[in-house]
Design brief:
Oligomer: single chain
Radius of gyration: 21 Å
Number of domains: 2
Strand content: 5-15%
Number of strands: 13
CATH architecture of the largest domain: 3-Layer(aba) Sandwich
Strand order of the largest sheet: 2-1-3-12-6
Number of helices: 19
CATH topology of the largest domain: D-Maltodextrin-Binding Protein, domain 2
Largest sheet: 5 strands, mixed
Shape: globular
Length: 455
């Protein structure tokens, strides 16, 4: 999950209730946060639904993005050779469960399907997705932010088209920082730690931030730190949770947790919303979908917040991770792969379509160069954020995302293992560094058990 589109606050709250096993991004999996009024302004009037032309090749498309059916209607109205039947089979893991059942049964398999980046390698490893390089997908590579294209590629194969993302940002309440004599949001993790200690020392009920238990959040932190837990090429995989970069991030957050200088309010909980509203938590790190969680959860603080770039491990560096996002794939079982590719490519590259999906209920964070450079998107100013043109900061954050980070073919197992070990970390029974070592050992064994060659 969402990313602006994929890590919905309500969805992730449900995920956390299930031992925080992923799914949205947005972020895990999720749905789309509600858009701001400014974002909604880019949404065109709905296109009336049309019936399938007599000779059209019919395909089925699964997605959970709110109001994406409006874009399906627009495609159907403007194409006579292909007709798309839209189905919403639930968010993230709910959709994946139904997809796996359909694939196993060999019936009701969609031709086109939405999949989050962290779950994509698993579907590739099982041979469930068509290599759209065979349909000339490489021809549109330059239309996307480069690192997102790396997310849908493996070896010489291209397994779909990027749809949205969740480059990490930090959001800070300027009034709270100022109250404690902090004139600007921290730009390095050393400053972040110092500010966290200063605020909590000055007021036992106040904190710079909290720790977000969601797996996508921490993996975004690993990404930003330069860690590369997985490199996959077919049946070969390298696993590295014990690199200097990974252990650096683990020790940092483990030390902050044990220091008591982070709020214990769980992200998306009512306690967290209350703390944000009362100015007892100053900052939060999330994907670029995060502002809607702040404005929705802390409406009393309108005008006090700013969107910031993430703190860096080295002053002056420009490194970032991603937290959420998804792509559009063609299934290998589809009997209409060329038609499916035509729609998938249109949905993710047509300028009017991709811009429309950044607003309304969809509110996707765009990964297409036409959308991220369009003034209708870049110049959006939101009153809740003090009139700041937040998309410009987010676009800068997007440009800083490391393109070499990859996911495993068994994200469900990795996420559930992390969630289980994190409970022990919170209870003081395991250090964060020990968690990383355990994740390393168990992931290697699991990979071998699944038939992968671990390099």
């Amino acid at each position: 999950m969402r990313h602006r589109a994929i890590w919905h606050r309500a969805f992730v709250r449900g995920v956390l209730g299930l031992a925080i096993v992923s799914v949205a991004a947005c972020s895990g999996s999720g749905t789309t946060p509600s858009p701001t009024a400014a974002e909604a302004s880019v949404t065109p009037a709905p296109t009336p639904a049309v019936t399938a032309p007599p000779n059209a090749e019919q395909i089925t498309f699964w997605s959970w993005v709110p109001d994406i059916n409006l874009q399906v209607d627009a495609f159907n109205a403007s194409h006579t050779d292909v007709y798309v039947n839209y189905v919403n089979n639930g968010n993230g893991n709910t959709e994946y469960a139904k997809l796996k059942t359909s694939l196993q049964a060999g019936t009701d398999i969609p031709d086109v399907v939405q999949i989050e980046y962290q779950h994509l390698p698993g579907f590739i490893a099982r041979g469930n997705l068509a290599n759209v390089a065979n349909f000339g997908a490489a021809d549109v590579k330059d239309k996307f932010v480069p690192w997102t294209w790396a997310q849908v590629s493996q070896g010489s194969g291209i397994f779909g088209y990027p749809q949205d993302a969740g480059p990490m940002i930090m959001m800070c309440n300027k009034d709270v920082l100022s109250k404690f004599g902090i004139t600007a949001a921290p730009t390095t993790w050393d400053e972040f730690k110092a500010d966290a200690a200063a605020i909590h020392k000055a007021d036992a009920n106040s904190y710079l931030s909290n720790f977000t238990d969601d797996q996508g959040w921490f993996f975004g932190m690993l990404w930003q730190a330069g860690a590369k837990p997985f490199v996959v090429n077919g049946s070969e995989i390298s696993i590295n949770f014990t690199s200097a970069e990974a252990l650096k991030a683990a020790k940092y957050w483990g030390d902050l947790l044990s220091s008591g200088n982070l709020s214990k309010a769980a992200t998306w909980s009512s306690d967290w919303n209350t703390a944000l509203n009362k100015g007892q938590i100053a900052c939060w790190q999330a994907g670029a979908w995060g502002p809607s969680a702040i404005s929705g959860g802390a409406p009393d603080t309108a005008g006090k917040w700013e969107v910031e770039l993430m703190p860096q491990w080295t002053a002056g560096a420009k490194s970032n991770g991603n937290y959420g996002g998804s792509m559009i794939a063609v299934t290998s079982a589809s009997q209409h792969q060329k038609a499916a590719d035509e729609f998938a490519r249109w949905l993710t590259t047509d300028p009017a379509t991709t811009l429309a999906l950044t607003g309304g209920k969809a509110s996707l964070f765009p990964v297409q160069n036409t959308a991220t450079s369009d003034p209708k998107w870049t110049d959006t100013a939101d009153a809740f954020w003090g009139g700041q043109k937040v998309h410009q900061v987010m676009a800068e954050a997007m440009a800083q995302v490391d393109p070499s980070f990859g996911w495993s073919p068994f994200t469900d197992y990795v996420y559930s293992t992390y969630a289980s070990d994190l409970v022990a970390v919170h209870a003081g029974k395991m250090t964060f560094e020990a968690l990383m070592n355990d994740l390393q050992t168990k992931s290697i064994q699991y990979a071998k058990d699944q038939g992968f060659t671990v390099k």
